[in-house]
Amino acid sequence: MRYARGMGDLLLINEVAEIVGVSKDTIRRWAKKGLIKSSRSPNNHRLFCPAEIVRLKNKLADGGNDSKYEILKSRMSKYTALELFSGCGGMALGFENAGLRNLATVEIDKYAAATLKLNRPKWNVLDRDITELNNEKAFDSFRGKADIVAGGFPCQAFSYAGHSKGFGDPRGTLFFQLLKVVKATNPKIVIGENVKGLLKHDRGRTLGTIIRCLNDAGYNTTYRILRSQFLDVPQKRERLIIMGVHKSLDYPHLFPAEKDYTVNLRQALASVPLSEGQSYPSKKYNIMKRVPAGGYWRDLPDELQRSYMGASYFHEGGRTGMARRMSWDEPSLTLTCSPAQKQTERCHPDETRPFTTREYARIQTFPDEWKFYGSSNQVYKQIGNAVPVNLGYHLGRCLIAMLSGKTKVDWAEQQIPFDENEKVEEQMRFTF
After folding, report:
1. What is the pLDDT of residues 45-57, one digit of tens each?
2. Average pLDDT along the chain
3. pLDDT digits over 91-129, tens only?
4. Among the options 155, 213, 347, 398, which is catalytic?
5. What is the CATH number of the domain that holds 352?
6. If we measure between CA atoms, which residue out of 305, 310, 57 comes closest to residue 49?
7. Which of 33-47, 76-90, 113-127, 351-365 has the lowest mean pLDDT?
8. Better pLDDT: 145 or 43
9. pLDDT at 355 over 80
10. pLDDT score of 431 more than 70
11. Where on the phi/psi map is residue 415: left (φ > 0), alpha (ψ -120 to 50), or beta?
């Protein structure tokens, strides 16, 4: 049975395996690693695109020379963006590369704000508390001038590492500061960015509250999960994008279409500049040097597994991020703020060390000329918290298409539905 898709027919796994000459187990493994996409048939069977799998098969066979690492850029447009919670500039730079003019960026962290000023001295960087700025009505002057208001409101309150307190955490309430800016500026489009964990937080009610608030403020709002590894980023990083369009405008909601390729670490880290980086303490070094490329703690001898994992050895679940060495032939796992910390190890494919700060920046698609202010720990934190620049570029191109009155992005197809997203949408129908 075939299900049409713009980039080729979708087939059942046994049909694809026979046509491509790859085992079903291999296809499942590639899908689990995030190297290929899958969709669902009406009767819930997983479907794959043969052309996409042929492309990956050839790429792995010839060392990955069919796609390339590049920082994407387009011509400047007339449209403007105001960005809140900008961090060190991943989304802001991606938007600029897409052609959006930067009206202002707001960032309270002194190191990230210094990074923005260092790289873009002509940007209007507001390095103050957004709550104070709202109390002073500082954003009223942007009313009618900002086509887009975007903000990656702090995600720790909705993430596992942040204990998932949501609006019960002061950081979670910063969404309402974004909402105040939206009401003060009345932009055409609102963009919220956060971790995937927000989808399920409080059984979908937190996201439901956010969407209701934007709808009440005058915006037709929806959301998508964007998977960075299919958007020219050498990293398996998933971000939730919430998009609101002013109800007075007949704009479609356009999201980036996933590509039929990934960029691997071999491509991303070729000729990377030297830079500072962390190192492992001796005990961890002696463990990590035993882990093969693409492997993790379960690839160690059993006695070393028990010694390294402690009580976690007996817990359920794979804990696949622990004692993890990356592979040259794949995108990196999601970068974290501390690459040497237990449970977030991101070991270099060959050398027994974490990635350097410049390697971190490459993986997040920052250009080599983008400098970061602060100690190495501060730099890792800034880069680890950032939106990948190329993801911001693809999103920015969609926003420009919307503002230009287009019903689609010229280079894009309709995105394949993301299965987990669909399940949460179904659940949220009952929680709104």
Report:
1. 889 888 888 888 8
2. 87
3. 999 999 999 999 999 999 999 999 999 999 999 999 999
4. 155
5. 3.90.120.10
6. 57
7. 33-47
8. 145
9. yes
10. no
11. beta
Q: Which residue has the higher pLDDT, 321 or 188?
A: 188
Which residues are registered as beta bridge partners of 210? none
- Whether residue 161 is predicted with pLDDT greater than 60 in this model: the reply is no
Is residue 407, in this structure, part of any structural domain at all? yes
Phi-psi map region of 169: left, alpha, beta (phi>0 left; psi -120 to 50 alpha): beta
Q: Is 155 considered catalytic here?
A: yes
Measured CA to CA in angstroms, residue 47 lies from 2, 53, 231, 426 at distances of 9, 12, 21, 20
CATH of residue 18's domain is 1.10.1660.10
Half-sphere exposure of 137 (CA within 13 A, CB side): 3
Model pTM score = 0.86
CB 204 within 8 A of CB 424: yes
Residue type, 230: F
Those residues with Cβ within 8 angstroms of residue 87's Cβ, 6 or more apart along the chain or in another chain: 107, 109, 112, 152, 382, 385, 386, 387
Q: Which domain holds residue 40?
A: 11-61
Q: Which of 170-174, 197-201, 332-336 has the highest mean pLDDT?
A: 332-336
Q: Count of domains in the chain?
A: 3
CATH classification at residue 422:
3.40.50.150
